[in-house]
Design goal:
heterotrimer; A alpha+beta (152); B mainly alpha (365); C alpha+beta (660); A: 152 residues; alpha+beta; OB fold (Dihydrolipoamide Acetyltransferase, E2P); five-stranded mixed barrel; 7 strands; 36% helix; 31% strand; elongated; B: 365 residues; mainly alpha; Serine Threonine Protein Phosphatase 5, Tetratricopeptide repeat; 75% helix; CcmF_C (chain C)
């Protein structure tokens, strides 16, 4: 087998594998990617029920309600609006009222979001970045100023 | 002094690490070239494999042929290399030595000078012998905390814990602990004074309205509460009522026995107030705080004036001036902050809150 | 005093690394052995300086010297000694110092191996290494200095993030860093080869141990991190496709490819340019990982402090080294001599295929990890690419690779015979299919993917054993001879077999997760909760106080089919200094599976939330990784110098001559 033929075989196989990977990536990009929305975005972007996305915002004070068998509901709000979130499971350690969280799940109807994952920050200095950005845009969060004051 | 010698020795050692190989004469000629050595060993290995029966003779021949070809090629390349003595080599060596002699110390001293803390070199490092004592101490605190978590109405426990918190530097916790103690044990002059003092420390020395109220209640309960009266005097001083402060200090002094432990402190305050009007920039500041504090404050001020900063930083500068007794500066800072943060709604609010707290309101434009 | 001396030593190391960069490069260009000899001497001096700085910082931690800002921010006098020590690298500044320490350590090892590494190659390699050291030292000293002092010193520190106060996390960063930084040596050797315009089997022979060491440590580091996430985060998951995890997976995939391509280069003198490229890519991905994790671009438990200045500094380092090395590659690679030829169906061909799949899989992870970041920068739109994406793109690329692995391992060098190879795998594949069918029948109604995965894992293990067996066993020979032959096999053969079997073990563990069961409930004392055939009963709830935290403990009795197995404790902790709560999962190992209980919130009425999992065979995931690393270690001990001969090919001498 000559060098040229060998090279052609190699290029053929490599091209095949790369094409496969590209196809998979493009297909997966359409299908599996999850967008991030704040409660206000849901109305602004007219998100349809049944859509899967990540919801981020602050847990509204006094809105957390627990019922039987670890069913929890609470409201997530940003500066402009809020939405009811239902979740079944254990909440993360740092889940507290007034804290920023990110929930991933499906919009059940325009007023209810059913979460299957709830993420809170990893430590006391950490605000989920998406939440921080969304709130900063609305001029609500001054956590950084506070943090810098503490640091000095 | 010793430390400077150590640093010098370290630098010398580092430079020597570079000079040493440069000073030695070329003596590598005898060294086997790893390139050809590799293939020689490879051929020997093939021989051994054949002897053990791991390779068929025909396989071994093929392998040896290939290794032999590579060995020849490696030898061919080898000829081009080595041999560098004489004038240019000497010049190169001198240049490299000069480079090492200059770059290593200069870079190290420049970087260390910029980021290190050589002024701390002379002070001995913090003694940390009470390690185990501290550990037990921490455990004890945790135990009291756990106990109080279950019996929060145990006011005695809070009262024990509060000064411990103060000593650990957990001032905020101390304030809360005194608060609980007051709630469950009721007001008492000493307790109120301590509570107020914790609040003062939590605000970096500023006697807030709440703290002042606590001290006033303490004095109402017991005219002779020294600590409360001392802080009330200081509150007056921070409010700019210098004469009132002087009067209160004097009164405190005359009411106390001459050998009381606080006399010296009060005298110091008095003598400070006796000095030129503490409103002017140079006189008041440096005497009150240590020089470090004054320097930090002026550093912050310069930075905020030139580069701007967050509302919290402005507010802190205002408070610092107030604590240093420079009320006119605090007021001026408030004015500057209002201009700098004109477009920042939330920031302005922070400034106003601070101004109210410092009772600078009347000085507002 | 010690702290300041350590700080000064670090500044000295900066100057020394600059010398180590400039002088040897000059020496190699001018062909001056004296200048080249500066490289090993300075490399040792740099190690001494950085090592001293590290000792100084560790001493500050151990003695709780709170005049050092870094100690104040990350330590506490009541913290157990081990976490005082691990606290040194449990923060941004200290971890960067550890990074450079390992870098210097590896440089020093290259420096002392003077009889095996040609002087020119050594000089160039150490120079490139010094450039990396210089960049990171500059970063540490100017942008994240661990020796910053505070005066007056506070009486007490702020404690280490409780999530990091864990034995797993105490050793995870050093393992991972040895992996990341180990690839810097392969990178430096690759750049040196490009600078010198010369690369051959000797080069591959020298680089292979480095790549293998780095790879084995990275494998351990990733496994350790995964196990930590599994038991510490309390969600029972072991891999989240989190960007931070991906940041370590990418260099691992590229490094795995590099380990394999170096073998081809060492034995067959082929795939030179590709190997160089892979070495550069692998370290670039390591740097990218460091950047992603340390810059605060991603928020996670790893991004200790979000400081844009640091982010842009590391980005600068990234651009200089990745850009520089690729430019060097583009300029010099065409000058390298082409390597030997081989047929597509051969061990080399199989290894090329391996590299192809690994590199492509790495690329999909790269896209999935960086696409959201790029999109956000470009359009401001925030998306999250999670497990579904990676499962969909990564698995279809890895599964064929694993299926082909036993074939590749069995193929002969230079030219192979696919049919013959397949025949030699009859037994292994037959058994694997049998196992698959048996498991399928046994777990009828369960998930189908799990038995298939177990079958794949069994195939991988048997395929690896088959390689050993077929090389030592022949019909009719007595066991003693077989044993002697097996023991006489090169240790690299054993290492390969073991590492590949380890992959099989991990695959079985992953496949078995599909059989995991989970339940969720609210419990009061005396209540029961069931998951699969396991049941827990809440025995007691009690508070407990330790030196730096207090906790509420739920004591559970675990039983299987009514038979009691023992107690299990799961806790909610509150770390006092930071006021931060954490959950400690209770884990009971039963065989290779685990019962995993995680405590939820405690309600005012005394009831608790509880999540219970039973995860069969889950330990295999990490045991497999241990076996892989052990395989790497055994392969490392093989000091033999061999040439890849077309073993058992019938017509060989003519072919091999023609090939050259």
């Amino acid at each position: 087998m000559t060098r040229k033929k060998r090279r052609l075989t190699l290029i053929g196989v490599a091209g095949g594998v790369l094409a496969l990977a590209l196809g998979l990536v493009l297909y997966a990009m359409n299908d599996t990617i999850v967008f991030f929305n704040s409660p206000a975005d849901i109305q602004a972007k007219n998100v349809q029920p049944g859509t899967r996305f990540r919801l981020g915002g602050l847990v509204k004070q006094g809105s957390v309600q627990r019922t039987e068998s670890q069913q929890v509901s609470f409201e997530v709000m940003d500066g402009q609006s809020s939405i009811l979130v239902r979740y079944k499971g254990l909440l993360p350690d740092l889940f507290r009222e007034g804290q920023g969280i990110v929930a991933e799940g499906v919009l059940e109807n325009p007023d209810v979001f059913r979460a299957d994952t709830v993420l809170a920050k990893h430590d006391e200095n950490y605000m989920p970045r998406e939440v921080a950005d969304a709130l900063r845009r609305q001029g609500h969060w001054q956590g950084e100023g506070k943090a810098s004051q503490q640091a000095q | 002094m010793v430390i400077w010698i150590i640093l010098l020795v370290m630098t010398a050692a580092a430079v020597m690490a570079v000079l040493w190989p440069l000073s030695r004469h070329y003596a590598v000629a005898g060294q086997v070239d790893p390139n050809t050595q590799f293939y020689r060993e490879q051929i020997a290995e093939i021989e051994r494999d054949r002897a053990r029966g791991a390779l068929l003779p025909s396989e071994a021949e093929a392998a040896k042929a290939e290794a032999g070809r590579r060995l020849l090629r490696a030898n061919g390349l080898q000829d081009a290399a080595v041999a560098a003595v004489g004038e240019p080599a000497l010049r190169r060596r001198r240049a490299a030595s000069a480079l090492a002699l200059s770059v290593v110390p200069v870079l190290a001293i420049a970087i260390y000078g910029a980021y290190g803390s050589p002024h701390l070199l002379s002070t001995p490092s913090v003694p940390v012998s009470q390690e185990t004592a501290k550990l037990d101490f921490g455990t004890a605190v945790a135990q009291i905390e756990a106990h109080l978590a279950q019996n929060p109405q145990d006011g005695r426990g809070w009262e024990v814990l509060a000064p411990v918190y103060m000593r650990m530097g957990r001032v905020e916790d101390a304030v809360k602990a005194y608060e609980s103690a007051l709630r469950y044990l009721g007001p008492e002059a000493n307790r109120l004074s301590n509570y107020g003092e914790a609040m003062v420390l939590a605000k970096d020395g500023l006697v807030s309205v709440e703290a002042q109220a606590a001290f006033e209640r303490a004095v109402a309960l017991d005219r002779t509460a020294v600590k409360a009266r001392f802080y009330l005097a200081r509150a007056a001083e921070q409010d700019g009522q210098i004469e009132k402060a002087k009067a209160e200090y004097t009164e405190l002094l005359s009411a106390s026995p001459a050998d009381a432990p606080w006399v010296a402190v009060v005298r110091e305050q008095l003598s400070r107030l006796g000095a030129p009007q503490p409103g002017s920039a140079e006189s008041g500041g440096p005497q009150i705080g240590s020089e470090d504090i004054a320097r930090m404050v002026s550093g912050l001020a310069t930075r905020l004036e030139t580069q701007g900063g967050s509302a919290e930083e402005w507010a802190r500068l205002m408070r610092s001036y107030a604590v240093l007794g420079q009320r006119d500066k605090a007021a001026a800072t408030a004015k500057q902050a209002r201009q700098a943060l004109a477009k920042d709604e939330a920031g302005l609010k922070t400034i106003e809150t601070m101004a109210r707290e410092l009772k600078l309101i009347d000085s507002a434009p | 005093m010690l702290v300041e001396a350590g700080h000064f030593a670090l500044a000295l190391a900066l100057g020394l690394s600059l010398i180590q960069f400039v002088v040897p490069l000059w020496g190699a260009r001018a062909n001056d052995p004296v200048l080249m000899r500066v490289a090993p001497a300075t490399a040792l001096a740099v190690l001494a300086c950085v090592g001293f700085a590290f000792v100084a910082l560790t001493a500050a931690y151990v003695t709780s010297d709170f005049s050092v800002l870094n100690v104040v921010e990350n330590s506490h006098s009541t913290k157990p000694l081990i976490y005082k020590i691990s606290g040194v690298w449990g923060n941004h500044e200290g971890s960067m110092l550890l990074w450079v320490l390992i870098l210097a350590l590896f440089g020093a090892v290259v420096a002392v191996s003077k009889n095996t590494v040609p002087a020119r190659l050594q000089a160039n390699t150490l120079a490139v290494q010094a450039a990396i050291t210089f960049a990171f030292l500059l970063f540490i000293l100017t942008a994240s200095n661990p020796f910053t002092r505070v005066m007056p010193a506070p009486g007490e520190g702020q404690d280490l993030n409780p999530l990091l106060q864990d034995p797993g996390l105490a050793i995870h960063p050093p393992l991972l860093y040895v992996g990341y930084v180990g690839f810097s040596i392969s990178f430096a050797f690759a750049c040196a080869a490009l600078i010198d315009g010369r690369i051959d089997a000797v080069w591959a022979r020298i680089v292979r141990p480095w790549t293998l060491t780095a790879w084995a440590f990275l494998t351990l580091g990733i496994a350790m991190g995964s196990y930590w996430a599994y038991y510490e985060l309390g969600w029972g998951g072991w891999w989240f496709w989190d960007p931070v995890e991906n940041a370590s997976l990418m260099p691992w995939l590229a490094g795995t490819a590099l380990v394999h391509s170096t073998v081809v280069m060492e034995k067959r003198d082929a795939l030179k340019v590709w190997t160089i490229l892979l070495a550069i890519l692998t370290f670039s991905l390591s740097l990218l990982g460091t950047f992603l994790v340390r810059s605060g671009v991603l928020t996670s438990v790893h991004s200790f402090a979000v400081d844009p200045a640091r982010g842009s500094f590391i980005l600068g380092i990234l651009i200089v080294f990745i850009g520089g090395s690729f430019a060097l590659f583009a300029w010099r690679a065409p000058l390298l001599r082409q390597g030997g030829l081989f047929a597509p169906v051969s061990r080399e061909g199989a290894l090329v295929l391996n590299n192809l799949f690994l590199a492509t899989a790495c690329a999909t992870v790269f896209i999935g990890t960086l696409y959201p970041l790029a999109l956000e920068v470009l359009t401001g739109e925030k998306i999250s690419v999670g497990a579904p994406f990676f499962n969909f793109t990564f698995l279809p690329l890895i599964i064929p690779l694993l299926l082909l692995l036993p074939f590749g391992q069995t193929l002969a060098w230079k030219r192979g015979n696919f049919l013959g190879t397949a025949q030699r795998l009859y037994a292994a594949s037959g058994l694997a299919i049998l196992v698959t069918l048996a498991v399928l029948a046994f777990t009828a109604g369960g998930p189908v993917a799990a038995p298939l995965g177990v079958g794949l894992g069994v195939f991988l293990i048997l395929g690896s054993l088959n390689e050993i067996a077929s090389r030592s066993w022949s019909k009719g020979s007595p066991w003693a001879v077989v044993w002697r032959k097996a023991a006489g096999l090169p240790r690299s053969t054993w290492g390969t077999a073991l590492a590949h079997a380890g992959v099989g073990v991990t695959v079985i563990g992953i496949a078995a997760t599909a059989w995991g069961v989970e339940s969720l409930g609210t419990m009061k004392v005396g209540d029961r909760l069931k998951a699969g055939s396991y049941e827990i009963r809440l025995e007691r709830l009690l508070p407990r106080v330790e030196a730096n935290y207090r906790e509420d403990v739920a004591i559970l009795m675990v039983s299987r089919n009514g038979q009691e197995l023992g107690n299990l404790e799961t806790m909610k902790r509150l770390y006092l200094t930071r006021g931060m709560p954490t959950t400690e999962a209770g884990i009971m190992t039963v065989g290779l599976g685990q019962v995993y209980a995680s405590l939820g919130e405690i309600q005012p009425d005394g009831s608790i939330g509880m999540r219970l999992y039973y995860k069969p065979l889950v330990l295999l995931i990490w045991l497999g990784a241990l076996v892989m690393a052990a395989g790497g270690a055994i392969s490392l001990t093989d000091r033999r110098l061999r040439i890849g001969t077309p073993v058992r090919a019938k017509t060989l001498s003519a072919a091999s001559v023609a090939a050259e």
